[in-house]
Design goal:
The chain is 25% helix and 20% strand. The protein is built from 17 helices and 25 strands. Helix 2 crosses helix 3 and helix 16 packs antiparallel against helix 17.
Length: 604
């Protein structure tokens, strides 16, 4: 796939000698923000969350759970090494991680659009080079757009399919026109498009898994691969962008190695032995009492609890509404009442977690516990009949049990809802009254924590006459079944930003519901959800945007598509003290690309 010369790729492409349709309101800048203006001026020196004087050299070793069978992260097929996207392959613009959604120049020296964002023009940096020394040209950008639109992941096909026309204006300038598309995020989406070399990418084999690394323009190259087990990235000494302000203080290690582990306990034991340098801890039990080993006690292993202003990472038990058993929202709401968070949090997680009823927990974007404002009510007016009053007025709350694991009030409320949905107890079994079919389903899990949560939940379900079974699979099989929607219920986490956009259609838009490889795991097909996603893409200022996202949050809560399990207010990171990080954390949280290896003391 990668490394062979291209022999043709169909695209909508034209060559133009000049701008003949640029509106008078167009502005060419070195950065672009989704709402408002970029925080940093042109000519800034470095980002505030990096150490511009960080030592260069050394090696960073990651320890990842799972395996891989492909080095192409841009297709659905296979399990790819995702870090290739940032370490090897670059985009036209790069994120400023102290802002909700602002992009600064990387491969592109400047970006131009009009007030209505009906088009975007990028002017490439003439210094930009792929790692083989070939220049990055506008033809490569047009090629990448066409390739990913036709052969990329479903989100790429969805995003890039909104472009009406592409003009290569000169070797370093490219313009994308959007026709009548009302999507103010599109210029930024295209700014983040991965750029692949036209001269070294095989279109015919692009959708096949491969152990041949893509040729990129980024700071690292793939130099060693042990299929399924390890991949080594080495810093390119001729990296064209090493002195750019956006890169100053980043990409400090000479080598980055990604080691994969099949099993979570073995992964943690390898960390204790120093076989890899850091881990993001996701198990409260382990964080609470698992770090009582010599290196942690003597300070060689450092533990950081990091807070950010992002929506808090949240776990959900997801109903696959493609299954008949979960088709009725009353059934889903009843099953939500039977989840005893208080018992699970106290007995399994030392009370370290909270949970929110919405999908943007702990942020200004969350509608949970907030009354809808005037703008939200206007947006939701066509769908008012399907949004419960308590979700609109902010009084809706997740059930709070007595923590006994046998809360009778929650059980009675759930059984009343089941009754309204046509179910009744037949002895100790809950059955559909008409068909006599028992209410039964399977929970698919892959980690110890997922299994423990599922066991506690099935015990509560059994008291309501529901037969729920648990199937434990390895991480690879879990991921494959999740992507193909082959499950009844799974535990899942959707990561959100402070500027949700086109990816929301990928998460819960109707078109994504039947498209394998998307993240609409619940199978949501709701015109209200689709309308709110469209509205947030049209929003012109931050205030309007916040209202549209909260309106989206209310439509999702009203659908009861998933049971909120927990959300973490902190990110837990353990690292060997040979790895250092900046004192200041970015708004988005920890960034391993900003870390460095502690220099060895000079010999006396």
């Amino acid at each position: 796939m990668f490394g062979r010369a291209l022999r043709g790729c169909a695209m909508v492409l034209a060559l133009s000698p000049a701008f003949d349709t640029v509106p008078a309101t167009a502005a060419e800048t070195a950065a672009i923000a989704m709402h408002g203006a970029p925080a940093l001026p042109a000519g800034f020196d470095h980002m505030a969350y990096v150490n511009p004087d960080a030592a260069k050299g050394g090696r960073l070793v990651w320890g990842l759970l799972g395996t891989f069978d492909s080095l192409n992260p841009f297709i659905v097929r296979g399990v790819a090494v995702q870090q290739i996207r940032t370490y090897v392959v670059e985009s036209l613009l790069a994120r400023g991680n102290d802002e909700p959604f602002t992009l600064y120049g990387l491969l592109a020296r400047s970006v131009e659009t009009d007030d209505n964002r009906t088009y975007v023009t990028f002017r490439l940096d003439p210094r930009a080079r792929f790692s083989d020394g070939q220049p990055v040209l506008a033809d490569d950008v047009a090629f990448s757009w066409s390739l990913l639109r036709d052969h990329g992941r479903p989100n790429h096909r969805q995003y890039y399919g909104k472009v009406a026309k592409v003009d290569v204006l000169d070797p370093l300038t490219i313009r994308f026109d959007f026709g009548g598309e009302q999507d103010r995020e599109l210029p930024l989406i295209l700014g983040l498009m991965p750029i692949l070399p036209k001269h070294a990418t095989d279109v015919a084999g692009f959708e096949d898994t491969t152990m041949t690394a893509p040729l990129g323009s980024g700071p690292y190259r793939v130099t060693a691969v042990r299929p399924g087990a390890s991949i080594t990235l080495s810093r390119n000494p001729d990296y064209w962008g090493r002195d750019l302000p956006i890169n100053r203080g980043l990409w400090n290690f000479d080598e980055v190695r990604l080691d994969y582990y099949r099993e979570a306990n073995g992964q943690f034991e390898a960390f204790k032995r120093g076989l890899y340098d850091f881990r993001v801890e996701t198990e409260p039990l382990r964080w609470h009492d698992g770090y009582d080993f010599p290196a942690a006690r003597n300070g060689e292993v450092v533990r950081d609890s990091i807070t950010s202003e992002m929506p808090q990472p949240s776990q959900f038990l997801v109903f696959n509404t493609r299954r008949a058993v979960f088709a009725d929202v009353k059934v889903r709401r009843a099953l939500t009442l039977l989840f005893d968070f208080e018992w699970i949090n106290r007995n399994y997680f030392f009370g370290l977690y909270r949970r929110s009823g919405g999908y943007f927990a702990g942020s200004e974007l969350s509608a949970y516990g907030r009354a809808a404002d005037t703008a939200e009510r206007e947006l939701l007016k066509p769908f008012a009949a399907q949004i419960p009053r308590d979700i609109m007025d902010g009084s809706y709350r997740l059930p709070v049990t007595d923590g006994s694991g046998r809360d009778r009030t929650a059980l009675k409320a759930a059984l009343d809802l089941f009754e309204a949905a046509g179910y009744g107890l037949d002895g100790t079994m809950l059955r559909q009254r008409t068909t006599k079919e028992p209410l039964a389903f399977e929970i698919l899990v892959t980690t110890r924590d997922q299994e423990r949560i599922a066991l506690a939940y099935t015990a509560s379900l059994k008291r309501a006459g529901i037969n729920a079974s648990i199937r434990v699979v390895d991480p690879v099989q879990f991921d494959q079944r999740r992507l193909s929607f082959e499950f009844d219920m799974i535990q899942n986490r959707w990561d959100q930003s402070l500027s949700p956009g086109n990816e929301q259609a990928f998460y819960w838009g109707s078109e994504a519901a039947d498209r394998t490889g998307t993240r609409n795991y619940m199978g949501a097909k709701d015109p209200a959800v689709d309308a709110m996603i469209a509205a947030l893409l049209r929003a012109r200022d931050r205030t309007e945007f916040i209202s549209t996202v909260r309106a989206l949050d209310r439509t999702l809560m009203a659908g009861f598509y998933a049971i909120p399990v927990l959300n973490a207010a902190e990110e837990w990171i353990a690292r060997w003290n040979r790895i250092e990080r900046p004192k200041r954390t970015a708004l988005t949280g920890a960034l391993p690309e900003s870390w460095w290896q502690r220099p060895e003391p000079a010999p006396r």
